[in-house]
Amino acid sequence: MRKSFISLLLIMCAISIRTHAQRQPNIIIIISDDHAYQTIGAYGSKHGKTPNIDRIANEGALFKNTFVNNSICGPARATLLTGKYSHKNGFKDNETSEFDFSQDLFVKQLQQVGYNTAWVGKIHLGDKLQGFNYYDILVGQGTYFNPDFISKEGRHRNEGYVSDIVTEKALNWLDTLDQNKPFCLVIGHKATHRTWMPDPKDFGRYDTLNFPLPETFNDDYSTRKAAALQEMSIDKDMQMGYDLKMFKSVEDMMKDGNFKRMSQAQKDSYIAYYRPIYEQLENANLTGKALAEWKFNRYMIDYLNTAESMDRNIGKVLDYVDQRQLTDNTIVIYLSDQGFYMGEHGWFDKRWMYEESFRTPMVMRYPPLIKPHTELNAKVVNADIAPTLLELASVKKPAAMQGESFVHILQKPKQEHRKDLFYHYFENGEHAVSPHFGVRDDRYKLIRYYKRVESWELFDLQKDPAELRNCYADPAYQRVVKQMKKKLAKQIHLFDDTEAETIFNTNIDK
Q: Closest by alpha carbon to 314, among 32, 123, 27, 25?
């Protein structure tokens, strides 16, 4: 009788453990690279077609005010993993930082409660991964064609187009899993990173469009010293060969590293598509403003053509989840590592605290919690994702995590989350963007630049949403300046940014 009772007790415990495991949601995070919210259908794009990203938004939530703490590739991913700002997780920039995988990561917390974890694709944080049962990551930035990967078995090359390969690897890993254990999968896409190389099957999708110039395309930066010194102008800094594939000859094209690794069939596709465009450009003999506008239009075409494959592969992931009846117990998040300039201020790239690169797209599907067509206006930051996922998995947030869970706004979409936002961009290198930090509330944004440029900027986002007029020195805004400096000091203290504190306390006002 005693043995029977013990056996029954063991069976009940096993059932209880299995039921708890089944209640823990599966997690899929799809993170792209440099995907501008301005080009996504769900965010109102008139030209970009993103039916599968839109599908996540339509079946779940569209985050209308998601921001990053440091608008650059590696640091954004470090924040995603740690829930900490760059100065705390140690990965401040792409040029001098090395990520310490021994620190606590949200995936390590998930492993402790039974999750299988994986990262497939671009991570851009080195190759000494911890916290993942499986990984197969792109080497460095990765390449669009025939990319090299690193896994636990070593380095290897896969033939084909990167978005297809990354997705196939991710779904193949899902096929190997024990269905009784929850999983967390991060899919890191190469697209839409410079140099915007489309899958040949997507050539021509946007070629007939004539894209309207952004209102700020001809910005003269008259009140912004740092902006005037940048090297990310479509007109002056976007390269005809490297960026736009407008090489003077086929021989020059084949000298470029992106083409050297291609198969002959891939090379032939690119030659057949781009050479007629180059010849038309040569015949047009454009200069000055006309050439700058041509470059903008060509940039938009290549960028959107490149995004096509990524969106198509996001659809494959959603279909996989739905067809295997995992939908109701799987969180799906799509986001970009940061925002990107699509000609605003005359630019490409990111880095600035200006809205186009400070904001990032994010959509999320989780049927038990999120109603279809939910729109969230609350301000969230990328550091908030890790603690949110831990709460949904019933895991306590580690004390060192600086992000705050936004589960409460999923439950009650009209609630606020963050009132003020802190930002700090550290890199002092590529594109000549001066390091800076700042604070943003619902109406104003205050920015402090240092190193290359020592200056302040204040913007009234209500009156000047394009951020063209720096009103820091305007007598009418001096009370606002004082208020925003108090907010900035509070944020610096809250996030314990000692470098920002030292600079903040250095008076540069004349």
A: 32
Return d(Cα 148, Cα 154) in angstroms, integer. Answer: 10
Q: Are 298 and 234 in contact (CB under 8 A)?
A: no
How confident is the model over 195-223, as pLDDT tens digits?
999 999 999 999 999 999 999 999 999 99
| Residue 12 buriedness (CB in 10 A; 0-12 / 13-18 / 19+) | exposed
104 CB-side CA count, 13 A: 16
Phi, psi angle pair for 388, to nearest 5° = -65, -45
Q: Cβ(241)–Cβ(247) under 8 Å?
A: yes
DSSP string, 435-463: PEEEEE-SSEEEEEE-TT--EEEEEETTT
Q: Which two three-digit tokens encode residue 307?
A: 């995004």
C-alpha distances in angstroms, 73 versus 140, 163, 437, 456? 11, 17, 17, 25
Rounded to an integer, what distance in angstroms lies between the CA atom of residue 196 and that of residue 190? 10
User: How high is the pLDDT of residue 145?
Assistant: 98
On whether the CB atoms of residues 317 and 327 are closer than 8 A, the answer is no
Please list, in sequence order, all residues whose beta carbon lies within 8 angstroms of the beta carbon of residue 39, skipping any fewer than 6 positions away.
45, 47, 48, 50, 303, 304, 307, 342
Helix, strand, coil share of the chain (percent; to 5): 40, 15, 45
Q: What six digits make up the tokens of 254?
A: 């084949």
286 alpha-carbon distance from chain centroid: 35
